[in-house]
């Protein structure tokens, strides 16, 4: 997603940076390109018009013309305006009020409502809440069963409607059910149609009245482009939605929906769905999305992903050992384990900007098999050998290779990597003691 848009923006920015002095004429030329790029990405034309005129106004003003690096300055403006367009800052769910708090999910059929209900339940459960799923889609035959199965996978209770029970009766009963299950949050999956439909809206309005939901979240499929915006406008008019969840952002949608929904409806995008798996729901961060679109990479998301995998305390412990120069093969093994937990670095590197050294990193694959072998080799050493690798002579190497089912060459390789790592770390610690400590503490 956004690849084309990003490429187009990069071209415009290269042009701007290449101009020593910016004039009204070359800014206009650059903005014409921006406009085309956005329209091609399926961004709503009204949104494009406003967006470009805001940038134009700022770009030909003082702030750019008197700047030493006018090209950079325009990029900064585009970045800031894009963040504004996407909603400034992440908007968390509002789950205040007496228990159970209700989140009503609405949207067209196939938008991803049922899947998103389960994803949201998982997210809230991870946050320490006790959600309960409520299937109020009585028209699509498999919908109730689908939600029940997903609830089982997520490990949260799911209300079981009786035969022929109406949506109104289901949600009333679910309120009592939540109490009996000690749930503090109801997530209600509602019916969808292929198009906006009077009867459906009436039904949703009745459910809203019964439940007084804290949140009415519209689930929209990002792949539907311009249509997503029309759908959002219609639902908002009828139900006063409190937020939007954009699904299928992992697909090859051109991104227009993500860029227009907020501006057209004034409703915040609260989450984005980025895959079919149940943990593929992310909080929407306008600033990160803007950076990603402009090819600046989404460094914060990448860091968060890495932090999830890396045990911070462990990292600090290792760093301390390096400072004290007591880094042993046992610590090296701990580090390899962390690396293994990171899994494929690809996912993280994809989020980073594709420049210079990072591009090279991106081509580097961590070979899982090699990591596992290295661990086995270190496991086959005696405690003493791990602490004092210099005692590992030829016959010890042969024994270690036999014990780990590897070869002497591989044992040598692990020892060499360990030495290299130790040397490199010593240098780092030696040259940047204070800044290094700070970096490790972050
Ligand atoms: P509903 O009719 O609105 O309840 O839609 P479903 O929850 O049944 O979803 C329709 C299809 O979209 C299913 O195949 C889901 O797996 C898929 N889906 C939902 N969210 C996402 C997403 O974020 N990414 C992708 N790739 N597929 C999704």
Question: SSE layout and pairings?
Answer:
Elements: H1 3-18, H2 24-40, H3 45-59, H4 62-65, H5 70-86, E1 101-106, H6 113-126, E2 131-136, H7 143-154, H8 167-180, E3 185-190, H9 198-211, E4 215-221, H10 226-239, E5 243-247, H11 256-265, E6 269-273, E7 281-283, H12 286-293, H13 299-309, H14 312-323, H15 329-342, H16 346-349, H17 356-362, H18 368-379, H19 383-387, H20 394-404, H21 408-431, H22 433-441
Helix pairs in contact: 1-2, 1-5, 2-3, 3-5, 5-12, 6-7, 8-9, 10-11, 14-22, 15-18, 18-20, 20-21, 21-22
The structure holds guanosine-5'-diphosphate.
Guanosine-5'-diphosphate (GDP) is lined by residues 107, 109-115, 192, 247-248, 250-251, 273-276, 280.
Task: Note down, in words, how this protein is organized.
- It is found in: Cytoplasm.
- It catalyses: GTP + H2O = GDP + phosphate + H(+).
- InterPro entries: AAA+_ATPase (IPR003593), P-loop_NTPase (IPR027417), Signal_recog_part_SRP54_M_sf (IPR036891), Signal_recog_particl_SRP54_hlx (IPR013822), Signal_recog_particle_SRP54_M (IPR004125), SRP (IPR004780), SRP54 (IPR022941), SRP54_GTPase_dom (IPR000897).
- It is an enzyme of class 3 (hydrolase).
- Belongs to the GTP-binding SRP family. SRP54 subfamily.
- By secondary structure, the chain is an alpha/beta fold.
- It folds into 3 domains: 84 residues, SRP54, nucleotide-binding domain (Four Helix Bundle (Hemerythrin (Met), subunit A)), CATH 1.20.120; 196 residues, 3-Layer(aba) Sandwich (Rossmann fold), CATH 3.40.50; 138 residues, Signal recognition particle, SRP54 subunit, M-domain (434 Repressor (Amino-terminal Domain), Orthogonal Bundle), CATH 1.10.260.
- Helices cover 60% and strands 9% of the residues.
- It is flat and about 85 Å long.
- The two termini are 31 Å apart.
- Bound molecules: guanosine-5'-diphosphate.
- The site of guanosine-5'-diphosphate has 18 residues, from α6.
- Guanosine-5'-diphosphate (GDP) binds next to α6.
